[in-house]
Amino acid sequence: PEYWKQSARKTIQDAVRMQKNTNKAKNVILFLGDGMGVSTLTPARILKGQMRNKSGEEEHLSWDKFPHVAFSKTYNQDHQTPDSAGTATAFLTGVKTNMGMLGVDARTTKGDCASAQGAEIYSIGKWSLDQGKKVGVVTTARVTHATPGGLYAHTPHRDWEGDANLPKTGAEQCKDIAKQLIDDNADMSVIMGGGRRYFLPSDVEDFERGDNSKLGRRDGRNLITEWQNEKEARNLKFKFVWNATEFHEVNPDTTDYLLGLFESSHMQFEADRTDPKYETAGEPSLAEMTEKAIRILRKDPDGFFLLVEGGRIDHGHHETKAYKALRDTIAMEEAVAKAVELTSEQDTLIVVTADHSHAFAMGGYPSRGNPILGLTDKNGKIALDNDNYTYTTLVYGNGPGFDDHRFKNNTRLNLTDEHTSNKEYRQMTALPLGYETHGGEDVGIFARGPWSHLFHGVHQQNYIPHVMAFASCVGDYKLDKDCAASYSNTNTSNRGSSNFINIPLSFYFVMLIVFVYLR
């Protein structure tokens, strides 16, 4: 009992000593776990511990110890359960919009190019650039995918990543997302992820995957070469890389602009990243890309904004492959830990959140330390359902996993640990769908650094960039009178050396009256 009592007492003491950080944020880093709902966090935490030969439940994710935690309401303006485009627009521009659209407000009709004209809304990326800060984006998905696209693109349809995806008629006024990234965002310092196919012409073979005719560019432009030529024309220090060897050779001290496109489509799942069956050229980890980005961006005396996405958590869930989703969650956790190591809590606001959740659940009554990816036990023995079949702790509400366990002749697959520990194993689902869906419940927000205490309850998702902008004095909060700069960061109460400011002024007023009366 003393262990639990002392642990709680220490937590109270730490909370009592906590002081609000009202410094202006020089740097802001937003970590976005795509699909990383609360139901993902707990099993990821347990898996991390079990990979270290612990029981798992007592383990911590790097953001678990952040001082400020809140919830985010994720619905799109027109959908109860959201998609990643509408959510990206919310947590990057500060405005909620409809499902499937990026960087345009809800007056826009999905897929209608004309309706998007004049409906553009801008993100904290542009707000930061406008104030002289450096900006970067790192993702394990395609750099033209929903979350990274929300940083720079304006489109009525998230699928218009390349010109091969544009409708043949009616989209003449709209640029594909890859073209927007290169044509309209020349000052973005760091871009890393997948998605080479949308930057190379259809008649140019991909460096690693070969044939690029299906989704390569129809306009004949080589956007990678154009990016390089533009940087060279300005005599800038730049590098383009497409594999792990080239990536590790990049010196951040002598590189100011970095474009890394490590796959034709999305980068590999973390579980597959070093498997030669899936990856031959080699890819950096999310933590390695995060470190490289920070080392490049932090050279600017005005600071930076960096968006880091664990993009493939979502894809693992859509395939009902919990192993892959959880491994990618742990990979993002390692990236957050690296960012904490490389930055100061005094001048860098770090926010960790998700765009949405998934139809993913952890249930049964497994014993402490039971393998989180294994069969559920009961009283030390393998648990059986009402039909005397084994079952797992992790399940999905819908998705393709249903077919893998389908009843045949009144029987179904009786699982063993050999099945469930395989990274390709698909969890059982209650409802058969070809693609598992998102979940609509609130997601967590974890924050540390200047003004992180503004995350304190249940917020609308579009609140997130407003806090980041207020803390770093950009966008609608660029004037000192409207942002963190208007609050004295030399106030002694913020450093805990005096409690004067924490006492209501009315107290001093009353004391003055008493003093005068006694005189």
Report on this model:
Residues 490-502 have low confidence and may be disordered. The strands form 4 sheets. The chain has a 10-stranded mixed sheet, sandwiched between helices. Strands 10-13-14 form a 3-stranded mixed sheet. It starts with a helix and ends with a helix. With 519 residues, it is of the alpha/beta class. Helix 2 (38-51) crosses helix 12. The chain is 30% helix and 15% strand. One of its GO terms (cellular component) is side of membrane. This is alkaline phosphatase.
Provide tags for this entry.
glycoprotein, 3-stranded mixed sheet, transmembrane, 519 residues, single chain, alpha/beta, 10-stranded mixed sheet
Topology overview:
Elements: H1 2-17, E1 27-33, H2 38-51, E2 68-73, H3 84-93, H4 113-116, H5 124-130, E3 134-142, H6 146-152, H7 177-184, E4 190-194, H8 223-233, E5 238-241, H9 244-249, E6 257-261, H10 286-297, E7 304-310, H11 312-318, H12 322-342, E8 348-354, E9 357-358, E10 360-362, E11 377-378, E12 381-382, E13 394-399, H13 401-404, H14 417-420, E14 429-432, E15 438-439, E16 443-448, E17 458-460, H15 463-472, H16 505-518
Parallel strand pairs: 1-7, 1-8, 2-17, 3-4, 3-7, 4-6, 5-6, 13-14
Antiparallel strand pairs: 2-16, 8-16, 9-15, 10-13, 11-12
Helix pairs in contact: 2-12, 3-6, 3-15, 10-12, 11-12
